[in-house]
Amino acid sequence: MKVNCLKKTVLTSISGASGVEVVNGCIYIVADNAAMLYQLNHDLEVLSKIELPYTFSEAKEHIPKPNKPDLECICSFEINGYPHLLILSSGSLSPQRDTGYLIKLPSPYNKNHLAWPVQVKPLYDFLRSNEEVTSSGEVNFEGLATNERFVYLLNRGNTSGCKNVVLQFNKTEFVEFVQGHMSGIPFPKIFLHEGDMIEQQPAYFTGADCAHDYLFYTASAEDTANAYDDGTVHGSIIGYFCHKRKYTNRYYVDFLLHQQTCVMKTEDEFYRPKVESISIYEKENPGKYVALAVTDSDGGQSELLMLEIIL
């Protein structure tokens, strides 16, 4: 696996970029310190800012850390044939970060983006009590991705009991849940992933996206023992899983098989900014993808990267 950085641009009007998703050629970005969805054009100009309903701060941007929604996860899917975005908070501080939003993108029936809150706290509370996800009661959801059959939610691990896991949900159930059509919560299949290292430091999940049978992810190595505090970043990784299915005892069993990782470098040195999210932009040919990624320097400038991924 090889990753080449084709282009790098500073996002002058967005700080704390934490998630990126490309839908029908439009670039959408969320920031961890804002209750806002940013829509960009191909020249990386902000076309619109969509305010998201958030009750823990009157400000919509540059929200102080104790009150910020910490929006980290973003993915897209269709509901009744119309494209929607789903945005989720990390869950690392309750109740401020037990936040979710469903956004209907403009269509012939609605000229503007329509956003409404999603009640994710029951799901987050359940996952906080699950020993396969965390032994400390702490969660830190950083990546969200979907394909035709599944929704993947990635929990960022740490050394204090929060585990680096992929949560695989049935897509139909999960979409019903975020629309408020279920009385209960969806239950995931859980895949533990350990082993990514940079400079003897473990690298934990920061973002995700799906393309074909692949689940791409970003991860970073950071000097922090919990989901709340920031630390020195040693570097970032891009890797991928391959979705597999086998027939066992009259049943199909779905599982994720880890394939490869690539440590991001510039001129043979580790790329130090924290890569927070990835969105596959296009498939050039078999085994070659173009992706967008965003970085967050925890108070400094955010960057948008255009990457070439060769499997």
What does this structure look like?
- With 311 residues, this protein is mainly beta.
- It has a single domain, classed as Tachylectin-2, Chain A.
- The chain has two helices and 23 strands.
- It has helices at 121-128, 171-178, and strands at residues 2-15, 17-23, 26-31, 36-40, 46-51, 71-79, 82-89, 100-104, 114-118, 141-146, 150-155, 165-170, 189-192, 197-198, 201-211, 214-222, 233-248, 251-263, 265-266, 269-270, 274-285, 288-296, 301-310.
- The strands form six sheets. The chain has a five-stranded antiparallel beta sheet, with no helix packed on it. A four-stranded antiparallel beta sheet has the order 1-23-22-21, with no helix packed on it. A four-stranded antiparallel beta sheet has the order 2-3-4-5, with no helix packed on it.
- A hairpin with a 4-residue loop joins strand 3 and strand 4.
- The protein is globular and about 45 Å long.
- The termini are close together.
- The model has no long low-confidence stretch (mean pLDDT 92).
